[in-house]
From TrEMBL:
UniProt protein name: Beta-glucuronidase C-terminal domain-containing protein
InterPro entries registered for this protein in UniProt: GH (IPR017853), GH79_Enzymes (IPR052974), GlcAase_C (IPR031728), Glyco_hydro_b (IPR013780)
Beta-glucuronidase C-terminal domain sequence ranges: 420-521
Organism field: Mycena rosella
Length: 525
């Protein structure tokens, strides 16, 4: 690694970023080192993870890079739409999807013991949620899955973090429930009834490990059915068996042509929009904590229905993941599980994404990585957004006492296009994350870079003569789609491991400069 010094020519007007020197009352709870966790649609489990004897080494490396920085592995949620059409077959193997031969829609995902056995291929200490099918309305199917998990997950007491009954039950179709009676009231009655029946078959340590809710908070009317506050008010957690309440979070979608038209870079990459949407979680966090539980985002991404090409597979998506995750942490969301998968087709008849040829996966363009080569997306590789995980992991760190605070933008800086957070370890600010949301695209040149740059003065938090170390997350532009040109502290991560020398910038005068479409993490010495 080597150090470079910022030139003294850092733009004239450095604006003061105010960072409280001790954590105020509004600082977050201690951060879970697994803050940035993951979710995978079970139908594509084999592509992402392989099996117990032949794990996907690339995906495993992608996890390890995060764990190296936080000291813990992300919590893995195999879950999503295909969970609600899954079946356990004792004679089956790894998850196999059955698709409609005309539309290509997945209507069944079947797995046997090998699915649960594959959990043992992950490093020790990795924890999982277990997906149970609620959509089919057959307790027998869900019960068989739960019992099989206990039988086939090695070290189940450590590895099984939670059972999750159903995915986005507020979205169920007429084939899944009688929609004239389905809603929060019916959900709570059925959820309590099924979890009680399944608990009777589970070993005692697992009986209080349920996830509840798992429905969306999108403003769209179709997914507002199951909200944490409402479920708690209806007595869902009496007796208390819920480990965590879960809500899903997608502000935009490509499920229909109309919704896809609104999923644009200027709409998505606006800090005011991000915080308004993520802020919908605040009362749910409070409700969950009052009930003695916690709130997690069990599934989220920027654009539902598998993303939008040239919007979710660009460098700017990395900045979006960071801002969304850190803002959620600032309002005491415990963990966020960023969703990974491939096109399902079944979600609407006019979605813009398609599967690959001959049943090959049409991997979602919001994925952090493409786990295998595929005809539609090309070779296995990291997407430009992957580096967000390294940034967040280093902001959170291995400390179990980190607390986070969202900072106000400096005077004269647009709150729409700027985000900053500080992380305290104990009583002092140790790390400062800044995102400059002013768009800098690849073709904007030097003048564009200068016009979109922000200079900040953080000398007040740097007691030792303005000294600090800084890592930069950058790319030739917000619209960069080639991960080879996306760097975290000078290194590219396209193929799973770092290429290039690590660059630690030395801040010596308390001034930092951030170009448009860049983020930095300052390490206060
Ligand atoms: C988050 O939790 C901490 C306590 O751990 C509390 O002091 C703080 O006010 C909470 N933040 C919000 C936004 O509620
Ligand atoms: C595990 O995956 C390998 C490679 O795809 C395959 O050859 C093997 O049969 C699989 N094992 C099981 C138990 O499915
Ligand atoms: C699709 O499946 C149906 C029922 O299994 C079968 O009759 C039909 O020939 C199949 N069509 C194609 C194009 O494979
Ligand atoms: C429920 O499962 C049964 C048995 O696998 C299957 O025939 C049926 O189509 C499923 N129903 C739904 C709504 O998924
Ligand atoms: C759905 O529930 C309503 C109200 O109880 C009932 O009238 C209707 O017959 C039910 N529909 C089906 C398909 O069971
Ligand atoms: C669940 O509901 C069914 C049918 O209403 C009932 O027979 C069963 O006893 C209930 N089970 C539990 C554990 O409450
Ligand atoms: C987000 O930002 C844009 C500006 O591009 C604004 O027009 C839009 O209405 C905002 N809201 C949402 C929900 O996208
Ligand atoms: C960001 O979104 C807000 C609405 O939430 C809008 O008022 C504002 O103009 C947008 N800012 C930019 C720079 O587009
Ligand atoms: C993405 O952008 C590239 C380059 O601007 C363009 O060639 C391609 O058609 C775009 N893809 C889609 C799906 O819009
Ligand atoms: C940058 O490119 C995106 C497409 O990736 C476009 O939506 C946006 O308007 C461009 N912004 C500027 C400032 O040129
Ligand atoms: C990743 O591998 C590809 C194919 O071998 C290569 O072209 C690319 O330069 C590599 N990128 C990095 C950052 O190592």
């Amino acid at each position: 690694m080597f150090r470079i010094f910022l030139l003294a020519s850092v733009a004239s007007a450095a604006r003061v970023l105010h960072v409280p020197l001790t954590p105020p009352l509004t600082a977050s709870r201690p951060l879970d080192p697994a803050l940035t966790s993951l979710s995978f649609d079970p139908a594509f489990w084999v592509e992402f993870w392989g099996n117990e004897t032949h794990p996907n080494a690339f995906s495993m490396q992608m996890l390890k890079n995060v764990a190296d920085r936080t000291g813990v592995y992300p919590v893995i949620r195999p879950g999503g739409v295909t969970q609600d059409s899954s079946t356990y077959d004792p004679a089956g193997g790894s998850p196999v999807r059955t698709t409609d031969n005309v539309t290509g829609a997945i209507y069944r995902t079947t797995w046997g013991p090998a699915f649960y056995e594959s959990f043992a291929a992950f490093p020790g200490g990795t924890r999982f949620t277990v997906p149970l099918n609620f959509g089919n309305d057959s307790l027998a199917i869900a019960l068989a899955e739960a019992i099989a998990a206990v039988r086939h997950v090695k070290d189940w007491e450590e590895r099984i973090f939670a059972f999750e009954l159903g995915n986005e039950a507020g979205n169920y179709k007429a084939t899944q429930r009688n929609l004239s009676t389905w809603g929060p009231a019916a959900y709570v009655v059925e959820w309590k009834n099924w979890t009680a029946a399944i608990n009777a078959a589970l070993p005692a340590p697992l009986r209080t490990r349920w996830w509840a809710g798992s429905d969306g908070i999108t403003p769209a009317a179709v997914t507002v059915a199951l909200q944490t506050e409402d479920l708690i008010a209806r007595g869902l957690d009496r007796p208390p068996i819920v480990r965590e309440f879960s809500q899903h979070m997608y502000a935009y979608s490509s499920c229909t042509l109309t919704s896809a038209a609104a999923a644009t870079v200027p709409n998505i990459q606006n800090h005011t929009n991000i915080t308004a949407f993520v802020g919908l979680l605040a009362p749910k966090v409070v409700a969950a904590q009052k009930a003695g539980s916690d709130l997690v985002v069990g599934e989220f991404n920027s654009v539902s229905c598998s993303g939008k090409p040239n919007v979710t597979d660009i460098f700017g998506q990395a900045l979006w993941v960071i801002d969304t995750t850190l803002y959620a942490a600032s309002i005491n969301v415990s963990r966020v599980h960023i969703h990974q998968g491939a096109t399902l087709v079944s979600q609407s008849n006019s979605q813009i994404n398609i599967p690959g040829v001959n049943g090959t996966p049409g991997f979602s363009t919001y994925n952090l990585w493409y786990p295998v080569d595929s005809p539609l997306r090309g070779r296995r590789r990291a997407n430009p957004s992957y580096v967000s995980q390294l940034f967040i992991a280093e902001a959170v760190s291995k400390s179990k006492t980190s607390r986070l605070l969202a900072l106000e933008p400096p005077a004269g800086v647009s709150p729409d296009l700027f985000a900053a957070y500080t992380v305290y370890d104990g009583e002092v600010p140790r790390r400062i994350a800044v995102i400059n949301w002013q768009t800098f695209n690849r073709t904007m040149g030097k003048a564009g870079a200068a016009a979109t740059s922000v200079s900040l003065d953080i000398s007040a938090v740097l007691p030792r003569r303005g000294r600090a170390t800084l890592k930069r997350l950058t790319a030739p532009g917000n619209d960069e789609t080639d991960s080879d040109f996306v760097t975290w502290a000078g290194q590219a991560w396209t193929n799973g491991t770092a290429r290039g020398k690590e660059v630690l910038e030395a801040v010596s005068d308390g001034k930092i400069e951030i170009r448009g479409s860049e983020a930095v993490l300052v390490f206060v010495n």
